[in-house]
Request: fold
Amino acid sequence: MKKSFDREIIDYGHRKFRDDEFWKEIPAWKNVTEAEFGDHMWQQKNTVRSFEQVKEILGSRLTDRVAKDLEEGLRKTPMNIRITPYVFSLINWEDAENDPLRKQFLPLGTQFLEDHPFYMEDSLAEDTDSPVPTLTHRYPDKVLFLPVSVCPVYCLYCTRSRMVGGSTEGREKTVRGNKENWPQVFEYIKNKDQVEDVVISGGDASMLSPSQLKEIGETLLDIDHVRRIRIATKAVSIFPQKFISDEKWMDALIGLKQKAKSLGKMIMVHTHFSSPNEITIWSKRAMDRLFAADIPVRNQAVLQTGVNNDPNTMIRLTRQLGYMNLQPYYVFVHDMVPGCEHLRTTLREALEIEKAVRGTTGGYHMPTFVCDLPGGGGKRHIASFEYYDEENGISVWKAPNVKPGEVFMYFDPIWKLSKEAQKRWADETTRNQMLEDAKKKVLS
Ligand code: SF4
Reply:
């Protein structure tokens, strides 16, 4: 009998990195040189921020059907449009409807579904567990600091769509990440001796200026009990040029790394690649630079329908990340936030994909598949639910060290359930009874 490593999926494809001038297929960029494309300033200047720009840049490659659909999608989404030329030109515009990158960053009206009845703007209850503005303190030794509310791209699946990016037609947003909050945040951390781990996120930490990155990093490193700093940025995946050509920003990052090392502390970068289509030779170059600077990078993918919810895609992603010295750390079941119902998967899909990925690479490169519990229970391994009613898509969880005594619920997308279950969800009385029954199974 053939062993699993002889299977077709292990085809060494993960060692190949796209190395062509793919951006030249975009009409507006057909004369852009490799040097220009590799320049972070060029990427920023040419970032696509409106529907008008999409039309102008793509010209005849944008079909009327997709144009109309996109315009409609932009009216429905809670996220503003923002996409780097790097990602924009990796989209297969001849099959935009099915492209895994288009699905993550550019909404099509026809693909939207009604939000789940129990979706939440702040699904992870980050605002509830916030002792001072822009800081979340949930786990005893870790805090999450959000010093900025903008990103190089806006992802449709964003868990912080309530605050990230500007207001849209359908959604008014309050600007966060005001620098005025920083002293309060630093003061809070200084006074909390238990805090050893700080995540600097947002928004996206790559949008901090080099001096802001330095100020935050050095202030935190100077606090004795802070031992680990994680810099959360999606830029490695969607804007690798940042790490290749923004020397001032890299100097600030490397400076922090050196200071941390001299103090016996750790600095890491956390990023999120969700599709192997995001990976090219530019990703490898960015990772080579970070690796040479001794900065560990970990990945947090989000499981999304039509993007990566099949075993072979997730196996390829996992192996290719590992090959670039990027640790596949987490795969998140999609949060229950607005505007994403079409992207969410069932818990069962996550369990099956986890099973398929496990064993295809070394254990330390096996991502932990987690569900970040709605209501603030924190991240739990997907198989650690207390009860799962698969027929009705209801799972019940506990988080004894985060919120003792509480139960949390995660719901599969209704459109993926049987017709009978969909009918039960449509009736409010039956729906409430299903919830009560599921809770009772755990509490009795
Ligand atoms: S980069 Fe992160 S914070 Fe920014 S839109 Fe994407 S998921 Fe949200």
